[in-house]
Write a structure and sequence with these properties.
The complex is a heterodimer of chains A (184) and B (589). Chain A is of the alpha+beta class and 184 residues long. Chain A has helices at 25-36, 67-76, 105-117, 138-148, 169-172, and strands spanning 12-20, 39-47, 53-61, 80-86, 91-102, 121-125, 129-136, 153-158, 162-165, 178-179. With 589 residues, chain B is of the alpha/beta class. Residues 365-376 of chain B have low confidence and may be disordered. The chains are: A alpha+beta (184), B alpha/beta (589). Chain A binds chain B through residues 19-20, 23-24, 27-28, 31-32, 35, 68-69, 72-73, 75-82, and chain B through 117-118, 121-122, 125-126, 129, 146, 178-181, 302-304, 306-308.
């Protein structure tokens, strides 16, 4: 997959799914996507501040299946408590990237400079490579990744997109998430 | 009160008023089978776990109550996957309990271990792996709640052996704690009013009744709606019996093998009122050409069904009965309904009914009176004639069960259904072998009713061993095998779409010897080879009430199911019976 294709386009929509924090819930969600032929672009899951629940952030490819159908099927899972869509302009989105870049003595300073521009952090240094951590908007992380490519990437891991609604006056009434029912 | 996990499970089932469990014991479920001895719950020992699942389905379909099956781990669990998938497709409430290896052995490839919850994830509404005996009562309560509410469906409880042997302090929960489960019930009045507006304005409306009508017990409400509005009804394979076939506005079954009028009425309709139906591909044919001029009002309790195939003009997310009652209420308060508006439409439908009834070649051979053929040749026994004769010789409230294939379509076409829950068939999954065990389950649930299964010879061979169960448990079901010596529906497709190249479809009429097989299992076995023997054999079977009866009807191998909409074709391209298309060429338009 080329870096360009990795940009989040209109075919990608972000669902924020609140689930009961029980064994096997992730398998239920992933299994549903697989058996109904829906495509997951990225998925991140972690417990919320309430230990009974976890939040799964799923970027869904809606080209092959309408979002409304994906949401309705997800909602049928007994352990799924709430589903909302986060629109990019109404949400704060972030992603974390770890990347090991080939950087010999000659190139190291250029790489370190770019890491500085993206407010990243060097987490490991070897003789010919360094490992960098960058957190930011998915677009910034995309940019950083494509800037690193020419140096040679030895290893790369992204967390997938996570998001919360903006603390905007527009959202104060609803408390944030667009209820699943309103998703067209 | 301290109980073992096994005792708590059985007691929980008693609390849920379970009257019968269909099951088969084995290693991991052994602890639960001990308290079964002391429980008032009847246990029916099946011969194969698939039988337990289909019996539970038949029980549920005939009674409207959840069916319960219990089997052990590993191969037993995988054997019951087919009934779970079947129940999931047809929204049948089932509670399945499987044994599991001890929690300490899970994941070690222990003897008879398999990942039952993982395997059944996609074919259950929900499932549980119980890891603490203290959870048993609330898991059982949740299981029955989920299986029977909203869109019903199968659930599974996987029950490790050490949990069964552990002890717990007995309690019974007041309710369920399911923060993510809120099935809809009442309809949105705004949507109801919008629907009524369309209903009252339509000139060619059709009610498209699906299985949801039966699941929600909406038959009476549907009858009221029809009598109030004068709108004709089609009943899908899953909805046969939800509206009486004898009603003048009942058009019968639509779909791939539906009758001409039901199929064409939907095609030409300007409004489809879909009640608990899901626009299945067997009903719509080619979706883009389905009912092109119709607006759609879709009533369903499952939000994912609304708009899945066809986007409705009005969506009503609700229990089908409550929504239908609300429609009746609003229409009634709006004043008297003018039925004359629909007169031209009804006249058209009646003309189609007269011109294109379901038919077969009775004149050449078939009915008892029409003895044809050369000297020494017996007249051919037509499968449709067997169904008609069976209907004529059995009480109106007889429960009819079928397997899957040609015989199923003939049964649905030629049986006249008068009451809800008198038709038990495998619809969505199309599970061959369904009939024998499902009939047993139906008879267990409704011992007061006569229960007949119409089965194919291919289907019968898949699950016939359960007749040993029926004999042992004194469950007097009656099985009519339409023995055409072929996998008939496959043969029909090879005839029509594969240039009559018959590949692996011949089964032989004599192998096995169905009469001998039936008798070896303690049943009465009868064989019928010509039309005049049909009714006497049925009458003889009807008199036997202490054991199962199997009749081997030797039917015409060449007979095909018509009408037929070829797979992927538009419903406008319905192919009617040969004799009709010859005399009425416009039928093929």
């Amino acid at each position: 997959m080329s870096p360009d294709q990795r940009q989040y386009g209109p075919r990608h929509r972000l669902l924020s799914v609140l689930v009961e924090n029980k064994a096997g819930v992730l398998a239920r969600v992933a299994g549903l996507f697989s058996r109904r032929g829906y495509n997951i672009y990225s998925l991140a899951v972690a417990p919320t501040d309430d230990e009974r629940f976890s939040r799964i952030s799923i970027v869904v490819d809606v080209e092959s299946s309408p979002l409304e159908q994906v949401v309705a099927q997800l909602d049928k899972l007994i352990n799924v408590v709430e589903i909302g869509e986060l629109h990019p302009d109404e949400a704060r989105e972030a992603e974390l990237l770890l990347v090991s870049v080939s950087a010999d003595a000659g190139q190291r300073s250029q790489v370190i400079q770019l890491v500085g521009v993206f407010a990243g952090r060097i987490v490991d240094v070897g003789h010919d490579a360094i490992t960098v951590m960058v957190a930011g908007t998915p677009e910034a992380v995309d940019d950083f990744e494509s800037l690193m490519r020419p140096y040679g990437i030895a290893g790369l891991q992204r967390t997938g997109r996570i998001a919360l609604p903006k603390l905007d006056e527009k959202l104060s009434a609803s408390g944030a998430l667009a209820p699943a029912a309103d998703i067209a | 009160m301290e109980l073992t996990g096994a005792q708590a499970l059985v007691k929980s089932l008693e609390m849920q008023e379970v009257e019968v469990i269909f099951g088969l014991p084995g290693g991991a479920i052994l602890p639960v089978y001990d308290p079964i001895i002391d429980s008032p719950i009847r246990h029916i020992l099946v011969r194969h776990e698939q039988g337990a699942g289909h019996m539970a389905e038949g029980y549920a379909q005939a009674t409207g109550r959840p069916g319960v099956a219990m089997v052990t781990s590993g191969p037993a669990a995988t054997n019951i996957v087919t009934p779970l998938a079947d129940a999931y497709m047809d929204s049948i409430p089932l509670v399945c309990i499987t044994g599991q290896v001890a929690t300490t052995a899970i994941g070690t490839d222990a003897f008879q271990e398999c990942d039952t919850t993982g395997i059944t994830l996609g074919v259950t509404k929900h499932n549980w792996l119980v890891t603490d005996a203290a959870d048993i009562p609330h898991v059982v309560r949740e299981a029955f709640h989920i299986a029977t509410t909203g869109r019903p469906g199968p659930v599974l409880i996987d029950f490790p052996k050490d949990v069964a042997n552990a002890t717990m302090e007995w309690y019974w929960p007041d309710g369920v704690d399911l923060p993510g489960y809120h099935p809809p019930s009442h309809a949105d009045p705004v949507a109801i009013r919008a629907a009524v507006e369309l209903v009252l304005a339509a000139e060619r409306p059709v009610i498209y009744a699906g299985g949801g009508v039966l699941k929600s017990r909406a038959s009476e409400a549907l009858r009221e709606l029809v009598d109030l509005t004068g709108i004709p009804v089609v009943t899908t394979l899953m909805a046969r019996g939800s509206f009486p076939d004898s009603h003048p506005l009942c058009l019968g079954m639509p779909g791939m093998h539906g009758n001409y009028t039901a199929v064409t009425a939907m095609q030409k309709a300007d409004l489809l009122l879909a009640l608990g139906s899901r626009f299945d591909d067997r009903v719509t044919g080619k979706v883009s050409a389905f009912a092109p001029g119709a607006k759609v009002v879709h009533v369903d309790i499952d939000k994912a069904e609304i708009g899945k195939v066809r986007r409705p003009e009005v969506a009503i997310l609700a229990d089908c009965r409550l929504a239908t009652e609300a429609l009746v209420e609003v229409i009634r308060t709006a004043g008297p309904v003018d039925h004359s508006r629909l007169a031209p439409w009804i006249a058209t439908l009646q003309r189609w009914q007269a011109e294109y009834p379901c038919t077969y070649d009775r004149s050449e051979h078939g009915s008892a009176g029409a003895v044809t053929g050369g000297a020494g040749r017996r007249p051919t026994l037509k499968p449709q004639f067997v169904i008609e004769s069976l209907r004529a010789s059995t009480p109106p409230d007889t429960i009819l069960v079928s397997g899957v294939g040609q015989h199923q379509m003939w049964a649905s076409q030629y049986w006249s259904f008068e009451y809800p829950n008198t038709w038990v068939s495998s619809g969505g999954l199309g599970t061959m072998g369904f009939a024998v065990p499902a009939a047993i389950g139906a008879k267990v649930g409704r011992p007061d009713r006569m229960v007949w299964a119409v089965d194919g010879d291919g289907c019968f061979q898949m699950t016939a061993q359960e007749l040993a169960t029926a004999t042992a448990e004194r469950i007097p079901v009656k099985i009519a095998i339409l023995n055409n010596a072929y996998l008939g529906m496959v043969r029909q497709w090879q005839h029509m779409f594969y240039e009559e190249r018959y590949s692996e479809v011949y089964l032989s009429p004599d192998l096995p010897d169905y009469v001998g097989w039936a008798e070896s299992m303690g049943c009465i076995g009868l064989r019928v080879e010509s039309p005049e023997e049909v009714t006497p054999a049925i009458e003889k079977a009807n008199e036997i009430d202490d054991r199962p009866v199997v009749i081997d009807f030797r039917t015409d191998s060449m007979e095909q199911v018509f009408p037929m909409v070829p797979a992927g074709a538009s419903n406008d391209d319905i192919v009617v019976y040969q004799s009709q298309s010859a005399s009425n060429p416009e039928a093929l338009q």
